[in-house]
Amino acid sequence: MGLSAIFLPQRPPRQFVFAGDRQAGTFLLRNGRIASRSIFAGPALAEGAGWEEALAALRAEETGVVFSASPFIFNFFEFDKLPWQRQALDELVAWRLQKIFPEDIAAYDHRFFRLDRKRVLSILVRRSLLERAEAAFAGKRTPLTYIGCSTMEILARARRAKPAPDFFVERDGSGCTLVFQQHRLPVYIRKFRNVSAADTVSEIGKTVAFVRSQYGIDPRRYWLHDHLGDASAAAVEAALSTPGGEAAEGGEYSRLPLAADAAPHIPGCA
After folding, report:
1. Omega within 30 of 0 (cis) for the link into 9
2. Which of 63, 209, 79, 219 is nearest to 146 (CA)?
3. From CA 144, how far away is CA 160, in angstroms rounded?
4. DSSP 9-72
5. Inter-residue contact 7 to 113 (CB < 8 Å)
6. More confident residue, 133 or 244
7. Cα–Cα distance for residue pair 213/216, rounded to 1 Å
8. Residue 2 binned pLDDT confidence (cut-offs 50, 70, 90)
């Protein structure tokens, strides 16, 4: 199977595996809430290691796996006008992708989502990654019915939120992803590696300045989701709220709260 259609409503399974950067987690949902979770430090599921430990905690029922942003490639394409016929749209997006992508596209699962009359969001992930996940689940005799990307799952939730964040920060070990939206549609995504909260905040400041100049928006309200926990997130929040700090140029930021014990990267979780 390929990457699931993130922006299309569907019934997600009741248990998930999260494959992060040097950590993994299993989540069991009940009535849209997390009934239980287990976090495993160390395994790099995206690199093919640690599947046995992660899958050992699962029940023998339909399951989803959500990978962090690390293995995904995001691109925004803008055209003069997008055709409504699906085949013509597929061909147009494939043509644009081939012009900029240096590798063999056949080695990747490619999905794209129409954002408006001119723009699409393109997502690439290696087929070998999906095949390794399928093989691990098949060996466990557990049906794999959903494959997702944590960043896109959070984005889907951010688009529906009231109030909606101007951008969100997703931290996962040494990786960080920033997603900016305008009128509840994504306009810019950036991934980078960092080793500290200070590095993260510095890069947030630079990226906000870029988005402000390129897209004419003023990102202030944000979500912050750190897969390493509240203590790690608190360091970033504190640095963002420091007057005169590296990211504070041009005004202050306001962190919008997520629900207690939130897991916005897990589909079907309230």
Report:
1. no
2. 63
3. 27
4. -----SEEEEE-SSEEEEEEEETTEEEEEEEEES--GGGT-SHHHHHHT--SS-EEEEE-STT-
5. yes
6. 133
7. 6
8. low
* Residue whose C-alpha is closest to residue 16's, from 3, 6, 26: 26
Residues in the chain: 270
DSSP, res 256: P
Question: ∠154-156-158 over CA atoms, to 5°?
Answer: 65
Longest dimension (CA), the chain: 55
Distance, CA of 208 to CA of 66 (rounded, Å): 27
Q: 129-138, 149-158, 245-254: lowest mean pLDDT where?
A: 245-254
Q: What confidence category does residue 191 fall into, taking pLDDT thresholds of 50, 70 and 90?
A: very high
Locate tokens 């009741």: which residue?
14
Q: What is the mean pLDDT of the chain?
A: 88
